[in-house]
Amino acid sequence: MLWTITVILLVLWAIGLVSGSTLGWWVHLLLVLAVISLIFAIIRRGAASA
Predict the structure, then answer these.
(1) pLDDT at 14
(2) CA triplet 27, 23, 12: central angle to 5 degrees?
(3) What is the pTM (predicted TM-score) of this model?
(4) CA distances from 48 to 26, 38, 39 (A)
(5) Which of 12, 17, 39, 44 could serve as a FRET partner for 29 with CA atoms 20 to 30 Å apart?
(6) Could you say which DSSP state residue 21 is in?
(7) How many Å separate Cα 21 from the centre of its chain?
């Protein structure tokens, strides 16, 4: 589930970056949220295997 959210956020970030829209920091907020989601997914996966 978290991997799906991460991929969706990364795709939205890439689209926003390529489109050149004037969203400013909102585009980079998507990247930050994707990275946070990825970190939680990795932590969760590590805890499940331990």
Answers:
(1) 80
(2) 35
(3) 0.58
(4) 33, 15, 14
(5) 44
(6) -
(7) 19
Q: List per-block mean pLDDT (blocks of 10 residues) for the chain, which spans 50 residues.
A: 81 77 70 86 75
For tokens 């004037």, the residue is 22
Residue with tokens 């331990």: 50
Check: CB of residue 40 under 8 Å from CB of residue 2: yes
Locate 17 and state its tokens: 């970056």
> Taking the CA of residue 20 as centre, how many other CA atoms within 13 Å lie in the half-sphere pointing to its CB?
0
Cα–Cα dist 10/35, whole Å: 9
Q: What Cα–Cα distance (Å) separates residue 19 from each residue in 5, 32, 41, 43, 44?
A: 21, 19, 28, 33, 33
Model pLDDT, residue 50? 56
